[in-house]
Design brief:
Layout lengths: L4 H6 L21 H13 L11 H20 L1 H5 L8 H26 L5 H9 L16 H19 L8 H29 L3 H20 L11 H6 L7 H19 L9 E3 L4 E3 L5 H11 L3 H14 L1 H20 L1
Antiparallel strand pairs: 1-2
The structure holds fe (ii) ion (FE2) (2 copies).
Length: 341
């Protein structure tokens, strides 16, 4: 179904699916000074800005990474939107509304950051709808109970933070700056999720069971968010050299495990992994094998909610046609008025 077979198997690190970077092309001799300046900026940690010269492959890889990140923010609103009308209290409802609205904002910052590279938001959206672009596989799982909203905030937003904090220092200026605000908001999201889990874990037996059930269902898909294991992740080197990927998938996944185990213990919940154990020598947790077949299935379109998610995006696009037309007509009118004046 996907036209980009490489990225289909390469997977999706958190809210930004791991990219298979374009091969760095040979640059022409006339571009040598620009190339040298670009390399120097990378070496010295000086951000690359939209007006700066950059290799075509760097631009293309960034467009793919940032747009897929943007799509993930927008599609990520759907599983939580499912609970807006069913939140258990008015306070929880208003908090969830604010959170889902934040995710819309994240999508907008990221689409804008991608636009600085010369692609339009409409083109990016059409790529998503035509299944040429992806979004994080985690949003293809359903939210079956209110505890899932807690688990998403705690675990999915938690994983997003681990993935995205390093990107605040990535080489492309507009992306790095967008990530600063996004990460601040994600940390609120993570805390609201943990707060929901805390209430449930201290509640009735039934509430505790709900919390445990949510953890059971979300744990493994969350670990998959970091993308395939390093030994299968053959395209990371170029992105690391370009400073748009700063740590390996396995390193980030390990950080997630190490951070989350004590939190689960605090909640009195058990992580559904019999092989999970503290490794004294490594000073980190060992964990069990991840079902990469499931990951590939979901990334390739066969998860529990893939069709539903894309259908929702398609419907929003179709129903928004009149808004786009009205905006265009308004812009035309303004331009005509300016020309007449
Ligand atoms: Fe977000
Ligand atoms: Fe978030």
């Amino acid at each position: 179904m996907h036209t980009n077979a490489t990225s289909a198997t390469e997977g999706d690190a958190s809210k930004m699916p791991e990219q298979a970077p374009e091969q760095a092309p040979e640059h022409s001799p006339e571009q040598a000074p620009e190339q040298a300046r670009f390399e120097r900026q990378l070496d010295q940690g000086i951000p690359i800005e939209s007006a700066d010269w950059m290799p075509a492959a760097y631009r293309k890889t960034l467009i793919r990474q940032i747009s897929q990140h943007a799509h993930s923010e927008i599609v990520g609103m759907l599983p939580e939107g499912n609970w807006l009308t069913r939140a258990p209290t008015l306070e929880r409802k208003s908090i969830l509304l604010a959170k889902v609205q934040d995710e819309a904002g994240h999508g907008l910052y990221l689409y804008s950051a991608a636009e600085t590279l010369g692609v339009t938001r409409d083109a990016m959206t059409l790529d998503l709808l035509a299944r040429r672009a992806k979004y994080s596989s985690i949003f293809n799982y359903p939210t079956l109970s209110w505890a899932d909203i807690g688990a998403i905030g705690w675990l999915v937003d938690g994983a997003a933070i681990i993935n995205q904090i390093p990107l605040c220092h990535c080489s492309y200026g507009p992306y790095a700056r967008a990530m600063v605000r996004i990460c601040k908001e994600e940390s609120f999201h993570q805390r609201q999720g943990f707060a929901i889990m805390t209430v449930l874990a201290r509640g009735t037996r039934e509430q505790q069971d709900m919390a445990q059930d949510a953890l059971n269902r979300w744990w493994w898909p969350v670990l998959m968010m970091f993308g395939p294991p390093d030994h299968e992740s053959t395209n990371s080197d170029q992105s690391m050299r370009w400073g748009i990927k700063l740590h390996s998938n396995d390193e980030l996944r390990q950080r997630m495990v190490d951070q989350t185990v004590p939190q689960a213990q605090f909640l009195g919940l058990s992580i559904p992994d019999e092989q999970l154990a503290w490794n004294e020598a490594r000073g980190r947790y060992d964990y069990g094998a991840i079902d990469w077949d499931e990951f590939r299935r979901v990334v390739n379109g066969d998860g529990p909610c893939n069709q539903e998610r894309l259908a929702a995006r398609q419907r929003a696009w179709d129903e928004g046609a009149w808004v786009r037309e009205a905006l265009e007509a308004h812009a035309q009118k303004q331009a005509t008025a300016v020309a007449a004046a």
